[in-house]
Amino acid sequence: MVEIKDTYKTIVEFSEGLYKDKGSKFISYVFHVSDEDQVKEIIQKIKKEHFSARHHCYAYRLGFRGERYRVNDDGEPSGTAGRPIYGQLLSHDLTNVLIVVVRYFGGTLLGVSGLIIAYKSAATSAIENAQIVTKIIEDKYELVFDYQIQNNVMRIIKDEQLEICNSVFEMNCKLNVLIRLNKVDVVMNKLNLIEGLKIEKSE
């Protein structure tokens, strides 16, 4: 059986970094984010805080496999800011992460290669100051069953070390459990053998 990758790396909380070159200052911020609305909110806040800065460049990756992403050069020459920042998210294999680099111009032009190095270095600096964690991807299922078969259900939950998020134990019992992506098929095969058990995937 082919094993599915069911882990991803992200950061625990906000962190920052700094890079300087020829008077220009590149202040970098890394955030844990879960959706585009959060990204917009953070960028607006940073633009307000650093209203006198020349550029507010950023990149983000969202989704367990980084399937949603965006890069923004915010007025810097195309490909010199957002892409190098995004490159650091890729090389550190991070997702659900936003990096914003604020540039205060020092009066001397850095050129294309100088800008690429500056934005890459600033992004790296923020990542290096962040706490990186590996998280497990899990699917949530609702189990509904009569009290009489509770022991059978609970035995599988215990054997497979499933996490229970919610539980109601009455004549008609209801459980919400988290199943690691790699174990879904195995666990489902066992649960499907229990007569009278209803299983539904939850959001």
Overall description:
A hairpin with a 2-residue loop joins strand 2 and strand 3. The protein has a 5-stranded antiparallel beta sheet with strand order 2-3-6-4-5, sandwiched between helices. Strands 9-10-8-11 form a 4-stranded antiparallel beta sheet. Strands 1-7 form a two-stranded antiparallel sheet. The longest helix is centred in the middle third of the chain and has 18 residues. The chain is α+β, with helices and mostly antiparallel strands. It contains 5 helices and 11 strands; from the N terminus they run βββαββαβαββαββαβ. It starts with 6 loop residues before the first strand and ends with a strand. The radius of gyration is 23 Å and the shape is elongated. The chain folds into 2 domains: 128 residues, Ribosomal Protein S5, domain 2 (2-Layer Sandwich); 65 residues, ACT-like. Chain A, domain 2 (Alpha-Beta Plaits, 2-Layer Sandwich). Helix 2 packs across helix 3.
Q: What proportion of the residues is helical, as a percent range? A: 25-40%
Indicate the CATH architecture of the largest domain.
2-Layer Sandwich
How much of the residues is beta strand, in percent? 35-45%
The total of helices stands at 5
CATH fold topology of the largest domain: Ribosomal Protein S5, domain 2
List the helices and strands and how they pair.
Blueprint: E1 7-11, E2 15-21, E3 24-32, H1 36-49, E4 55-62, E5 68-72, H2 82-91, E6 97-104, H3 111-128, E7 132-136, E8 138-146, H4 150-159, E9 163-168, E10 172-180, H5 184-191, E11 198-202
Antiparallel strand pairs: 1-7, 2-3, 3-6, 4-5, 4-6, 8-10, 8-11, 9-10
Helix pairs in contact: 2-3
